[in-house]
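Hi everyone,

Forwarding the result from last night's run.
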Amino acid sequence: MKVLQVLPEMNAGGVERGTLELAGHLAAHGHESLVLSGGGRLVPRLEAAGTRHITLPVGKKSLKTLFLVPRLRELLLQEKPDILHLRSRVPAWALWLAWRKIPQGQRPRLVTTVHGFYSVSRWSAIMTRGERVICVSESIREYVRRNYPQTDEAVLRVIPRGVDPLDYPYGFRASDDWRKRFHDEFPATRGCRLITLPGRITRLKGHEDLASILGALREIPDLHAVIAGGAHVRKASYFEEVRALFASAGLADRVTFTGNRDDLREILSISTLVLSLTRQPESFGRTTLEALAMGVPVAGYDHGGVGEQLAALFPEGRLPALDAGAAVPVIRKLLDSAPAVRQPNPFTLERMLVDTVRVYEELLSNPA
């Protein structure tokens, strides 16, 4: 097959990582892999793994992007991909407009992936117009069914995101050398049981709920919270608000802010409990899956993709959604005695890649 994936850019992010992983899988299995984006720091990795990258500014949120439609139509006619896989709304509109201007017999087969709970609108509906629509969780399928009833349920395919067990092996723990460096950098964490809230510092991540939970558990002397993630410059005022919240509650010495890290795997591995307190459901929740894959207990609000992961791997960690008070006794019980995370993990990278290629093969085996 010849597969063209399209997204705004190839920098950091879950969509970018999934594109890179799928591109590598395609190239390794003898398929011709192309990616169209505005470029980015992951392009060299794409190319090193056997994928050809085409650079065009298809992700700019501007009417000028629509001026690319004739050029994109010519690109599709010239490259003749078998599969056109659209992963984001702005480029999806431009490529869909180009695609539909091609005679049906000359078109590539069209696949879209719904990666998130987009705002419900005609603008977002473009992600449901694929001949096959991949949903990254059962929660996303329900979102599509509920909000876009015009989409034929028969075209929906649930393919959860996955992690590589070689990167996140069950039972992995950070090395003694790493632990020493971490505790030297953050002395307040030494000798403590860590409850870790990973992710960027934004209002949706539930830092207020973490403060409430930590305050309710202050009688546990060795309990320490780690907020593993940084704040964008535009979120600086909220970051200061969060720090002030912990300070006003008398918890400043019970919480550590690590900032952006490249060693999140190691931080998760030394955590007694990883938390997911998002104020809105996540479409999947890759970080929580990384922890669960390593056998690290997770307690998370029981909604969205995180709720699905917990139901499959660690149901004891399900927390009543958006209720910090109800979360406290569950977390206290897990801190006292947490059961083992279940095995095997069904959410693997290999399964995600194989199932995606199967969708392509299904389309190509059936006439348009």
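The chain has a mean pLDDT of 96.

Cheers,
N.
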